[in-house]
Amino acid sequence: MNCPCMVDKKCSKSFPKQLCNHSSFDQNGFPLYMRRNNGHFVEILGVKLDNRNVVPYNKYLLKRYQAHINVEWCNQGSSIKYLLKYTNKGPDRATVAVVPANNECENNDVVDEITEYYDCRYLSACEASCRIFKYDVQCRYPSVVRLPFHLPNQQQIVYGKDDHIDNVLDKPSVAASKFTSWMECNVIDSEAQILTYVEFPIKLVWILNGRFWKRRKVGKAIGRIHSVSPNLGEAYFLRILLNKVKGPTSFDDIRTVNGETHSSFRDVCYALGLLYDDKEYVDAIKEASHSGSGFYLRFLFATLLMCNSMSKPEVV
Q1: Inside any domain, residue 240
Q2: Quick one: which of 13, 45, 177, 250 is 20 to 30 A from 158 by CA?
Q3: What is the pLDDT at residue 238?
Q4: What are phi and psi of 309, to 5 degrees?
Q5: What domain of life is recorded for the organism (predicted)?
Q6: Residues 289 and 221 in one domain
Q7: 223 — phi, psi (to 5°)?
Q8: CA pair distance 250, 164, nearest whole angstrom
Q9: pTM for this entry
């Protein structure tokens, strides 16, 4: 038997499987599906195939799409990460080069493949037809609203090299950022005061032209604050507070706990008990594990150690 999956005359997917009367898991957590020895088999090209040769499948999907779809039990977080990265990696790509049409060219000079190539997008006939007929090729729901934040008077400003500084400072984006407008909205909207910054897009929508928040009437959205490295200091502690504090109207409000205004966001985190037991650092590592690789998680932990921020790193 010669199949694409054969390596050294053996199936690379470990077929045929072992017969067993009950489903179980092996020592690595991979499923061993029930494969009864009922004596039934089919013969194809002189080869007898029984339950040991059946690829795992889902009966509903098989009937629904009239095609085989391999369905396996997902036992590792890395499998989910790979799946999400696969669907978000962008279109297919192909590396091409421009070469003479006559392969028998007498010029035998060495070709520099590094400099003489094009990194191009590859569009197959199937994908092209779907886009021509405007078929949906993907769906994302609900929409995610990116929520930037900044320290006092440190909002991001974009300007040209010939712009006058007074004109730059008069831009609406400087006077009212999405973050500062959130605090201004808490002043006039009592119902908004029960929401944290990350919960704001659930009930309100950001109006870019007027640079203000208003009540959401239709649709659904969730907010997400971009991640911050612990070695950034105050910005990291401010992000922690933005997931806890509700209804602040100013930076001083965020720094105030039980009527006492602290000098730094780090002190506020300690006053609220967010850093006493290193729980926030554990939560930061867990949050990073949803999207980060093993190398990134190790780098993050090493950064936490170098910052000397954890009280008991041995238990983290």
Answers
A1: no
A2: 250
A3: 93
A4: -95, -25
A5: Eukaryota
A6: no
A7: -100, 155
A8: 29
A9: 0.54
